[in-house]
Amino acid sequence: MTTCARSTGSWACARDGNCARPCTTDYAFHGIREWTRSQDDRLMAHVTATDGAEIFYKDWGAGRPVVLSHGWPLNSDSWEAQQLLLATNGFRAIAHDRRGHGRSSQTWHGNDMDTYADDLATLIDALDLRDVTLVGFSTGGGEVARYVGRHGTARIAQVALVSAVPPFMLLTRDNPGGLPIDVFDGLRAGALADRSQLYQDLADGPFFGHNRPGADVPAGVRDAFWLQSMAAGHHNAYESIAAFSGTDFRADLDAFDVPTLVIHGDDDQVVPFAVGGQASAARIDGAVLTVYPGAPHGITDTHKERLGADLLAFAKEHTA
Question: Mean per-residue pLDDT for 95-101?
Answer without folding.
Answer: 98
